[in-house]
Amino acid sequence: MKSLSTALRSLLVFALTAFITSPAFAEQWPITGKIDLSSGFGDYRPGHFHGGVDIRTGGVEGWGVVAPTDGYIWRVKMSYSGYGKGLYMKGYDGQIYVFGHLSRLVDKIRTPVRAAQFSKQKYSVDIYFPKDSIPVKAGELIAQSGQSGLGAPHLHFEKRSADNVPLNPLGSGFSLDDQTRPVFQRISFQVVDEASLFDDGSRQFYYNLSSTGPGLYKLDTLVYFNQPFGILLDCYDQMRPGGMWQAIPDLKLFIDGKEVYRSVFESLDFETTASVNLEFDYHEAVNDRKRVRRLFHIEGNQMSGSTSRQESGGSFGLTGNETVGRHRAKIVGKDTFGNESLLEFDFLWGNALGIFSLDSSAKVTADTTLFHFTAADGWQTMGLDSVVVVLNRGNQWGPVTGHRTDLDSSGHLYCWVPGRLIDRSLLRLVGFAGKNGVILEPPFNGIMEGAKPNFKFKHEIVEDGLMVTIDAVVKFGYSPRIELYYKDTLLGIEHPRIFTMKKFIGLIPPRPEYHRIDRMEVSLSSDTSSYTKTFDSLLILRVGSDANEEIAFDDQMSITFKSENFYKPRFVELRKQSIMRKALLHIDSDLYEIFPEVFLCRSDFKMEYRFRSGGKFNSHGGICWLDNEKDKWVWLDNEFVDNRLTSLSEGGGSFATVIDYEPPTVSRLNIFNGKTYRNPNQPIRFIAEDSLSGIKDDQNILVKLDGDWQIVDYDPETGRCYCEPSKPLTQGKHHLAIVITDRAGNVNEQYLNFYVKTNTGTRGKR
């Protein structure tokens, strides 16, 4: 935290004194001048919604913060994390106002706060003041902005109702000159049933959107669906052109003229704030794309502003009543000040079996086959221009030379396909609707049995289940088969979808019968006696259904999964790898891996590590997560009891128990041993850092002057420490003690003596 110079602070106080003598407003922004926001109400934050707005302060500290209305100081919460120096006031209008990341409080607030800190000898205090014990008037200076807690310099500002519910300040009395429409960038479609896949083998895909005018957008592709799906929108709002991106406060989805889903950020409930991981696309958010909003309901989302008037919760295709054919979707995004953007597009809806059902096939000549199909009801609304037959060659689909199709008005399709081995060829129908609509039908021909093709397969745990991909080296199509086992017991048989004769993909949902999987057998035939390939080094678990289940990696590391840790049952996979030269790397354990590396939890799950022997440095160990991007260990919040470490994790990745032998460092200390200073209020500044376990809280930073405990401001992101003496220093010798302790218990102690000498004589005396 930076300290303002005396001259600059005096200038700010003078300017603000001039301001507060002007007539007070009923409600006004807490910073004077033009308001520019860096974050908005409802923005994504890890694990919670942003409960206020962030006001930019030009990258510097020290802006004057004033009371928005008449009221009194209600609460001050001081912390090294979160809001840092947090100030709460209650207005006589019945509302609560919150100011975060402050650098300094005015004296009438600061004095009782410091008294409480000295009394408890703790920096972190949470103090509630009696009503009207510290009254403030609208426009009165109450603090200065800063960067305490987390984040760069800015002011976090909230307005809450009388019962402490965060309200959108922009919709409850705080206005801006905002004439900028929301921006739509991409649209996403996600399968919402148990195990279906799109035609690219995914459960979700994106399309870029085109702008056709101010606030108007279009989707250039006419998308065809035959599986239930939901819509997501990559979008943001701005207070001004070129301004920072924020969440759009009001999004509506209409299908065929009916509102099916609405997401509104007017107020937020602390009890349901974890729903941010469901309201936004979690996997996009953790990859720093915090803008993708979900426009359909999924299990666990309790945010009151997300509502649907449909039984399907905003998804399309779940009820079974949807008509085959063309449908119209519309998304309206509106900011608090009425600026609006619109996306309209058509999509085509079929069914899982395809638009055209194969009735029969017959040889017309030795090298030509006639296929008969019947179209589903509603096919006329598809606007089909043509239907063709395509042939698979390897991983590619291409035209069949010499084929002919005829679609009559009654919906009967006749296809003449030449080819000597056409009965063994993989064929499918492709329909074309306009210049940008393509309908891919399932393969209808050419599935072989009883062969022993060469193939390989791989598996991956995804959010919705176990994805198995088979790659084959074959000349014809085959019927894939997956058998799942646990302890030699067959649990079930799954049949992946055929994408090409060389590519088969299946999504296996976490059904109850798949509670444990330790072996997988794959073949390209429904014949159980055919050639198979086996993967038997597996430990795939279905978690989230048992109230309390402990899973052991080995005799040292275990994980406890509870049903409350997850929104719904899911798969995770556990693996273990040996680590060579552990002592050289300061590692006690093997490498424990949990897949997928990123997955959504409702709450953190417990990990426990048991040391085999009672080494004296065991208490300096901690379960760590490996940050692959930065190639460094991240120390989790560990507890050491009875030669065991316990910690919590919010997801997967690679873990190991690492021993921290290194103490923290203290650098750039501005007080030197034996030096004399002329300022009796000489501040103390230094940098405290730790390379592994880190500095946890205010109990890990101790500064004493002449044996008296001192208040230390600490910025965990930069390591900067700042301390003002609790009282003016007398002339003469003084003793400074700095003790920094990391989470592992390593200590750095700095002790020195310095002198204070003030100018008390008369200058110029003769």
Tell me the fraction of residues in β-strands, as a range.
35-45%
Number of H- or I-type helical stretches = 5
Shape type: globular
pLDDT averaged over residues: 92
- From the structure provided, what is the oligomeric state, counting identical versus distinct chains? single chain
**Major sheet:** 11 strands, antiparallel
The gyration radius over C-alpha positions equals: 33 Å
Spans of at least 5 consecutive residues whose pLDDT stays below 50 are 1-25, 762-766
**Tally of extended strands?**
64
The helix content is: under 10%
Question: Can you tell me the number of structural domains?
Answer: 6
Chart the SSEs and their pairings:
Blueprint: H1 6-20, E1 37-39, E2 44-45, E3 48-49, E4 53-56, E5 64-66, E6 71-78, E7 85-91, E8 96-105, H2 107-120, E9 126-128, E10 135-136, E11 141-145, E12 154-160, E13 166-167, E14 183-191, E15 204-208, E16 210-213, E17 216-218, E18 223-225, E19 229-236, E20 250-255, E21 258-264, H3 276-279, H4 282-286, E22 292-294, E23 306-307, E24 325-334, E25 340-349, E26 356-365, E27 368-375, E28 386-393, E29 396-399, E30 404-407, E31 412-418, E32 427-433, E33 437-440, E34 447-448, E35 454-462, E36 465-473, E37 477-478, E38 481-486, E39 489-494, E40 497-500, E41 503-508, E42 516-517, E43 519-523, E44 532-535, E45 540-543, E46 549-552, E47 557-561, E48 570-577, H5 582-585, E49 591-595, E50 605-610, E51 621-627, E52 632-635, E53 639-641, E54 644-649, E55 653-659, E56 665-667, E57 676-677, E58 684-689, E59 701-705, E60 708-709, E61 713-714, E62 720-723, E63 732-741, E64 747-756
Parallel strand pairs: 17-25, 18-25, 34-37, 57-64
Antiparallel strand pairs: 1-4, 2-3, 4-12, 5-11, 6-7, 6-9, 6-10, 7-8, 8-11, 8-12, 12-13, 14-15, 14-19, 16-17, 19-22, 20-21, 20-24, 21-23, 24-25, 26-27, 27-31, 28-29, 28-32, 30-31, 32-33, 35-36, 36-41, 38-39, 38-43, 40-41, 42-45, 43-44, 45-48, 46-47, 47-50, 48-49, 49-55, 50-54, 51-52, 51-55, ...
